[in-house]
Design a protein that fits this description.
The complex is a heterodimer of chains A (248) and B (308). Chain A has helices at 44-52, 74-80, 97-105, 111-120, 125-128, 139-151, 169-185, 198-201, 221-228, 234-247, and strands at residues 2-13, 16-28, 33-37, 59-64, 67-68, 82-85, 157-161, 190-194, 206-211, 214-220. Chain A has 248 residues and is of the alpha/beta class. In chain B, strands 1, 2, 5, 6, 8, 10, 13, 15, 17, 19 and 21 form an eleven-stranded mixed beta sheet that branches. In chain B, strands 3, 4, 7, 9, 11, 12, 14, 16, 18 and 20 form a ten-stranded mixed beta sheet that branches. In chain B, 44% of the residues are buried. Classes of the chains: A alpha/beta (248), B mainly beta (308). The complex binds adenosine-5'-triphosphate (ATP) and magnesium ion. The site of adenosine-5'-triphosphate (ATP) has 11 residues of chain A, from strand 1 and helix 1.
């Protein structure tokens, strides 16, 4: 599905090149759910933006379904089947939830059809469908609408950037089911989730750990997860793991 | 069925969603003539003497009625000034739909200056919708200069929706409102200018009575080489609440000047203004591109939403 080779990304910081992604290579096969985790500022969102085409790598290549998409625009990648749920969703004045879901699906969905995506993320659909995606929505509402929109894309590869952030426990429970269902029921589709949550890590087929722009660990859940958990938070443990790697 | 040309029908549909003879009271004005008029039991429409225009009387206590007074101009070179006065009786509740569409395919300027005065009775409720539209490829300009005056008695409420989205070359809009105690005014203005178009919009709202309030929001998009000046002023002369908001998007070489003004002449006035001008946020375009839209399609969606 997705093959990333020797990917690097640098930004200009005070006149000097700052490498945010450092020579990362990874592969996501068809029909799998992968989770990327790691400390804050490790480069997870940046990697997701490189996959979606929002940022251009300074080196390396991205292949999607056998095609080199490294130089394709965001639009062209979206059309080929890459969807991306933002860590911080965008607000729009005057664009309604229904409009956004219709744009995402590429179809003139009926309100009832659009509602089904909202219901999946635990929003009482009728109350939200006509609301504007503007500043009047709470953070958690906006986040769930973002996820619903991306579900409506029915993409081959969907990247969710911290879908759990700002979401209440009940909706979070729903969300886990949605991800599981996506993986189990939809053949050949792949999901990449960026997350700090143990519950999400525990449904991954494979876990990838990023720190300081480097891929420091990748492996099957059974193998990686026990090293990550066991203390209070996954992030904390991540740091533990990375120290372990350093010592190797 | 309406006996109008295809262009006139098209304009009517654009500005007033009218495809056929509307229900209730109406006056359809086409190329400077009233072509169809109907009064109703509660709404009487009478021609003015000496000047063009109408007096429209809405009986006290009228409920759930509508008045449509669309204007279309399809001949090049027409210039007209029209005075329409609305006398809205106490406790009435009415929807007034105005609007002007100009199609100018000729070399001469076509211009409609509509002067609308509203005398709103005690406890009356008015919703006023006005849409302006221009079309035609002639070198002659399409010019609309609406003047709107609103005089509001105690506890009356007026909601105005004024939209100019397309094809009007020059517009000077002037709106004045005087509010007595407990009166409430809500204005939603939408302006889009293209090419070399110019739009000036000036509001002066006087909050004269205790607990009167006004909320004036103008949203504009200036594209190509167009220019907009938005001048929103609220004057508080009593304990009152006023809010103005000027929210604009500029594109290409468009220019916008926003001049919000507040004047408080009573210590218990609470007046707020907000003004923001900027281009479309890059992240909004990016988000829509991740949904498969091109950059141009994304811009179009964002603007359509913004001006909705
Ligand atoms: N345009 C930029 N200019 C400068 N620094 C940047 C830029 N974009 C990202 N960074 C930096 O790159 C690093 C990685 O950022 P990124 O958002 O990818 O981290 P993350 O792993 O998603 O973190 P979090 O867990 O907090 O979401 C951070 O230190 C960030 O400050
Ligand atoms: Mg991040």
């Amino acid at each position: 599905m997705l093959e990333i080779k020797n990917l690097s990304f640098a930004v200009d910081a005070d006149g000097k090149d700052k490498e945010i992604i450092k020579n990362i290579s990874l592969e996501i096969p068809d029909g799998k759910l992968y989770v990327i985790t790691g400390p804050n500022g490790g480069g997870k969102s940046t990697l997701a933006k490189l996959i979606a085409g929002i940022e251009q790598p300074s080196e390396g290549t991205i292949n999607f379904c056998g095609e080199d998409v490294t130089f394709l625009s965001v639009t062209e990648r979206a059309k080929r089947g890459i969807a991306f749920a933002f860590q911080q969703p965008v607000r729009f004045k005057g664009i309604r939830v229904l409009d956004l879901i219709r744009l995402a699906s590429g179809k003139n969905l009926t309100p009832a059809q659009a509602c089904s995506y909202l219901s999946q993320v635990g929003l009482c659909a009728r109350e939200y469908i006509d609301r504007e995606v503007n500043a009047s929505l709470s953070g958690g509402e906006l986040k769930r609408i973002e996820i619903a929109t991306v579900l409506a894309r029915n993409a081959l590869l969907t990247v969710f950037d911290e879908p759990e952030a700002g979401i209440d426990l009940w909706s979070f429970h729903n969300l886990i089911d949605v991800f599981k269902k996506q993986r189990d029921e939809i053949k050949n589709r792949s999901i990449l989730i960026i997350s700090h949550q143990e519950r999400i890590l525990s449904i991954a087929d494979e876990i990838i750990v990023l720190r300081d722009g480097e891929l420091i660990r990748q492996g099957e859940r059974e193998e990686v997860l026990p090293d990550l958990i066991g203390t209070s938070s996954a992030v904390k443990e991540c740091r533990g793991v990375t120290q372990g790697v350093d010592q190797c | 069925m309406l006996n109008l040309s295809a262009t006139e029908k098209f304009l009517l549909n654009e500005i007033a969603d009218i495809n056929d003879v509307p229900a209730g009271a109406f006056n359809i004005r086409s190329n400077s003539q009233s072509v169809l008029r109907q009064s109703s039991k509660n709404v009487e429409i009478v021609s003015k003497e000496g000047v063009s225009g109408m007096d429209i009387f809405i009986k006290p206590g009228t409920k759930g009625e509508q008045v449509h007074i669309p204007v279309v101009i399809s001949e090049s070179g027409i210039k007209e000034k029209v005075y329409n006065d609305f006398f809205i009786g106490d406790n009435a509740d009415i929807l007034i739909v105005a609007g002007c569409g100009i199609d100018n395919c000729g070399a001469h300027d076509s211009q409609h200056d509509g002067i609308h005065r509203f005398y709103v009775g005690k406890n009356a409720k008015v919703k006023y919708v006005e849409k302006h539209y221009g079309s035609g490829k002639g070198a002659g300009k399409r010019i609309l200069n609406p003047v709107t005056e609103v005089y509001m008695e105690e506890n009356s409420a007026v909601e105005m929706e004024m939209v100019q989205i397309k094809g009007v070359d020059d517009t000077k809009r002037s709106t004045i409102a005087d509010l007595k105690a407990g009166a409430k005014l809500v204005v939603r203005e939408r302006l889009m200018t293209h090419e070399e178009q110019q739009a000036y919009s000036v509001y002066t709202v006087n909050l004269n009575g205790k607990d009167s309030s006004a909320d004036v929001v103008s949203r504009g998009v200036a594209r190509d080489n167009s220019y907009q000046k938005l001048d929103l002023k609220i004057v508080g002369n009593a304990p009152c609440k006023g809010h103005t908001e000027c929210d604009s998007i500029i594109m290409d070489s468009g220019r916008i000047l926003a001049v919000p003004a507040l004047e408080a002449n009573d210590v218990d006035c609470s007046l707020v203004h907000e003004a923001a001008i900027g281009k479309i946020a890059g992240e909004q375009i990016t988000k829509l591109m991740t949904l498969g839209l091109t950059e141009a399609e994304a811009e179009e969606q964002i603007i359509n939403g913004f001006l909705r």
